TrEMBL record:
<dbReference type="Pfam" id="PF16242">
    <property type="entry name" value="Pyrid_ox_like"/>
</dbReference>
<feature type="domain" description="General stress protein FMN-binding split barrel">
    <location>
        <begin position="10"/>
        <end position="157"/>
    </location>
</feature>
<dbReference type="InterPro" id="IPR052917">
    <property type="entry name" value="Stress-Dev_Protein"/>
</dbReference>
<protein>
    <submittedName>
        <fullName>General stress protein</fullName>
    </submittedName>
</protein>
<dbReference type="InterPro" id="IPR038725">
    <property type="entry name" value="YdaG_split_barrel_FMN-bd"/>
</dbReference>
<dbReference type="InterPro" id="IPR012349">
    <property type="entry name" value="Split_barrel_FMN-bd"/>
</dbReference>
Length: 166
């Protein structure tokens, strides 16, 4: 796998592309303690600055953890395409009703009583450190290339990975 570190605009574009296409992430909070708290979250948006937005219940354990310490780790994985993204950053909880309404979708009705539910908060994660693994060919072809590499002794070109510096 080759390495291609991305910076500024390219890094923000890559975060947006991968986070929105993979959608679900595992959000880890309470990072100072073991075991830390982990919960699946659906990405609502990645803005032009590379910030990742989620909706959450204000009384949730992860919101409580983020109020104490706003550090978080996001782990995105698309095993079907062998694409992975890890983001460490700082989370900020917002109760801005306009922002919540912008992020809210009909699928959120499963979790909230409509976009005016007073329990909804928006979480903005500002990336501080990120790394990606992006195969060129998807899972099946990558597995075949790995098998060929094992037989021939040649390292297969499986795709690209690198740091994302926003």
């Amino acid at each position: 796998m080759s390495t291609k570190n991305l910076y500024s605009t390219e890094a923000k574009k890559k975060i947006k592309e991968m986070a929105e296409s993979i959608d679900f992430t595992m959000m880890a909070t309470n990072l100072k303690n073991q075991p830390f708290h982990v919960i699946p979250m659906s990405t609502k948006e990645v803005d032009d600055e590379g910030n990742i937005w989620f909706l959450s219940n204000k009384t949730s354990e992860h919101n409580q953890n983020l109020e104490k310490e706003n550090k978080t780790q996001l782990i995105y994985a698309d095993k079907g395409n062998f694409e992975f993204l890890s983001i460490y950053g700082r989370a900020h909880i917002s109760t801005d009703r306009n922002r919540i309404k912008e992020l809210y979708g009909s699928g959120d009705d499963a979790w909230f009583d409509g976009e005016d539910d007073p329990m909804i908060t928006a979480i903005k994660v500002v990336p501080e450190d990120a790394h990606y693994w992006d195969t060129k060919n998807g899972k099946v072809l990558s597995l075949l290339k790995m098998a060929k590499g094992a037989v021939t002794g040649n390292e297969p070109d499986l795709g690209v990975q690198g740091d994302l510096k926003v």
